[in-house]
């Protein structure tokens, strides 16, 4: 009862606790954040909860469309120098910061190139202690990396060619903020966000409710010249139990949830991952690609007498001996796609759809196993409790072709430490994209990278040369061709077993429209309608 009263008190600043009934013309989008939100300062947008909130409040130079292509945002256009080291951005002149007490007379001023330079320098400033400082490491020039040439022209200088930098600039870490807000609020900026985004911060009762209002001066308009966003506000609740969250959604107290508690999966979804007939018309399901690749990794160092996974025939045999379709069907209720191509996942524009990876082929696996001189010794597969069922299923699949597998469990943090130290030879891993470019995935196998991300210690000169060459190619088609070659090397050399490409489930009330799924699971409410 206390929690309900707190929620009502917070929401009453804008809407009654009974939803939109007291102001029937107000359209308020309600979603829950079970994990909580630690900060509304974009420099600390290290998790999905913060990213979702910041995506409503701020803009960056560029953004992503629903297909993860780079599109203009605060920057209306940009040019890349012939040497690929200098990016010059031409800014819009109609972007204004939200009205806030940090400005003279409380009136938000126009955003300019100095604000961009300030914001990006702030990320890299050690005093900020941003967890996103790494995004520019060894990428931007040592001096004058971020420069305002004038109010409407911003320039970025790189240390070396890196075409994926545009993807990095779309991250919420790179949101543009005014220096006045930092000067006024200091560390309390976390609860006093000032941006240029489609919604304005109203109030935050931490752990109870967060409210945003429509920005009446937002610069973007739709194809009919109607100013975005369409809805009047956003209300975020913080129910920390996913079961309770789903019950609230069933009772229409929430408009949207991402993911579903395992206890309700069989109730809501068919085995193929589609919505059950009994739920159709009651809720809407969006199922889309998610930039996360699940895999098994083989450690690629040490004397062969101590490391059987240095034998490529054995690695390939294991790849052919795993039935990925069974994993998706029996353990994931049809959520995800079998990884039958490369390591980089479905959802990336460069996805290697024509690449032939490892299908389930027991006879081929047995032939390769024989060629590997495997003698039936016990092979240990390390995982954590979350993926125990999957590891056990894989062990049984491989046992059916003559491979003796023992599953070992470890706490996630401990397992990651062992992987980093090279203490486990065969392990379950996953890679979730930080930015929407396949370079992010191939860094996992670049020999000059330590662990993380190169947990397998893969070392291949051809791969390294192609990976480095990709940095110099600004033409997307040519660069994507190189990416597909990199994926083909990973398939041939098999330092990993690609298991599946993840998918994200989104559930909405039937009256919700205008929310487009995307492979980074970003929540974009600019065009949402109720």
Would you kindly provide a written description of the structure presented here, covering whatever features stand out?
The protein is of the alpha+beta class and 530 residues long. Among the domains are: 59-193, Dipeptide-binding Protein, Domain 1 (Dipeptide-binding Protein, domain 1), CATH 3.90.76; 289-504, Dipeptide-binding Protein, Domain 3 (Dipeptide-binding Protein, domain 3, Roll), CATH 3.10.105. The protein is built from 15 helices and 17 strands. It has helices at residues 2-11, 48-57, 113-124, 165-169, 179-185, 242-250, 262-268, 312-320, 324-331, 362-371, 388-399, 412-421, 439-442, 461-470, 476-493; strands spanning 28-32, 62-64, 70-72, 75-80, 86-91, 146-150, 153-157, 199-205, 209-214, 233-237, 256-258, 284-298, 337-338, 379-383, 405-409, 426-432, 496-508. Helix 8 runs antiparallel to helix 10 (362-371) and helix 14 runs antiparallel to helix 15 (476-493). Mean pLDDT is 93; it is low at 1-13 and 15-22.
Brief account:
The chain contains 15 helices and 17 strands.
Descriptive tags:
alpha+beta; 530 residues; disordered N terminus; 15 helices; five-stranded antiparallel sheet; Dipeptide-binding Protein, domain 1
Coarse shape: globular
Provide the CATH topology of the domain at 289-504.
Answer: Dipeptide-binding Protein, domain 3
What is the residue-mean pLDDT, rounded to a whole number? Answer: 93
Radius of gyration: 25 Å
CATH superfamily of the domain at 289-504: Dipeptide-binding Protein, Domain 3
Number of strands: 17
Share of helix among residues? 25-40%
| Overall CATH architecture of the domain at 289-504 | Roll
The end-to-end distance, rounded to whole angstroms, is: 28 Å
Alpha-beta classification: alpha+beta
- Report low-confidence residues grouped into runs of 5 or more: 1-13, 15-22
| Percent in strands | 15-25%
CATH class call of the domain at 289-504: Alpha Beta
